[in-house]
Amino acid sequence: MGHQITSQSSLTMAKAGIFSLLYPLLLSALVLNCHCQERKLHVVYMGGRPQEDVSVAANHHSMLHRVLGSATAAKDSLVHSYGRSFNGFAAKLTQEEATRISEMEGVISVNPNRIFKHHTTRSWDFMNLTTDKVGGPQESDVVIGLLDTGVWPEHPSFNDSGFGPPPAKWKGTCMTTNFTCNNKIIGARYYNSDNSYYFGDIPSPRDTEGHGTHTASTASGVEVEASYFGLAKGIARGGVPKSRIAVYKVCWAFGCSSADILKAFDDAIADGVDIISVSLGSDWPDDYFDDPIAIGSFHAMRNGILTSNSAGNSGPFPVTVSNYAPWSLTVAASTIDRKFVARMQLGNGQMFTGITINTFDLNGTSYPLIWEEMPQTIPLAPVQILPNIV
């Protein structure tokens, strides 16, 4: 009897041991299967817009219907339909569904949605594009489309005094959600495919970060008086101050979605812009068919529109230029011909010149010097540091 009980106990323990070994494997397989079945946003690129008089959006719905099995599922999946300037769409798909879409006729590439980052008075004079070379009457017909964080429309750089109505060629629109266009800012759209907003984000073309307002004023801002707390006083202006601005807000607190970038290109080309400015990009260079900026700028080029890209914020190491398509203009970084300098005289009479931003007058007062590495070894209270130069 005792032998039977021992045998049953051993069998139970063996089963428990086998289960404990298999459980992590079963759990991993279940998690992996759930992950593969999760629908994520994908960008489907199909090349140029069809010449035939067909509904591009209807074709996108049909493709999704065949893969997802119902018209309702296709409608719920579709986020963007690109059909005004080129052909493609953005939809929420599982990995398996994305693979099936990629095997369909006419599909060039299918890529998961990616998040890009935006890149960041006297620049135009430094480049020899001085005031006497800009401001011609033909400039008012130039429309610059800016893909960025939006703009702050009340900024003085976008004052429309002296501007007439928008050019007759303009086909764009102004989304007036917490935003007002004028004869300088003639168009405004915003895109958020994830429909998620973080603290500070406004569902509007309005800029709450500052990057888009900066790039827009650099490209197209009218002349305004500017300084940095009294330093570098002068006139700030854009490269083409008489031009018009069309705002395409694609960047938010979390970054810039590739699905939204392509939709903005699709709209900007069809709206009738002349130049597209894109001061954003990925952390590394991509293949042309996987890069929404390369794809969008290619179709802009085919429509006679120049795309001006930033090279990126990385470097100076190799393979750090993220925008390098040969059909667009990539703007590199450079030095400039001025510095903010200050002179410091030691007690022994030695004079040193360095770069600094100092907005207050020392009035000839002498201050003790503290070695910059000293606080790392000898903790100092703020009251001990304040009257010194670190």
Could you explain the architecture of this structure?
GO terms for molecular function: serine-type endopeptidase activity. This protein is α/β, with parallel strands linked by helices and 390 residues long. It has helices spanning 2-37, 56-68, 71-77, 95-102, 123-126, 211-220, 258-271, 292-302, 374-377, 382-385; strands spanning 40-48, 78-82, 86-93, 109-112, 115-118, 143-148, 185-190, 224-228, 231-236, 244-249, 251-252, 255-257, 275-278, 280-281, 306-310, 329-331, 341-345, 351-355. The protein folds into 3 domains: 40-113, Peptidase S8 propeptide/proteinase inhibitor I9 (Alpha-Beta Plaits, 2-Layer Sandwich), CATH 3.30.70.80; 117-331, 3-Layer(aba) Sandwich (Rossmann fold), CATH 3.40.50.200; 341-385, no CATH class. The strands form 5 sheets. It has a 6-stranded parallel β-sheet with strand order 7-10-6-13-15-16, sandwiched between helices. Mean pLDDT is 85; it is low at 31-35.
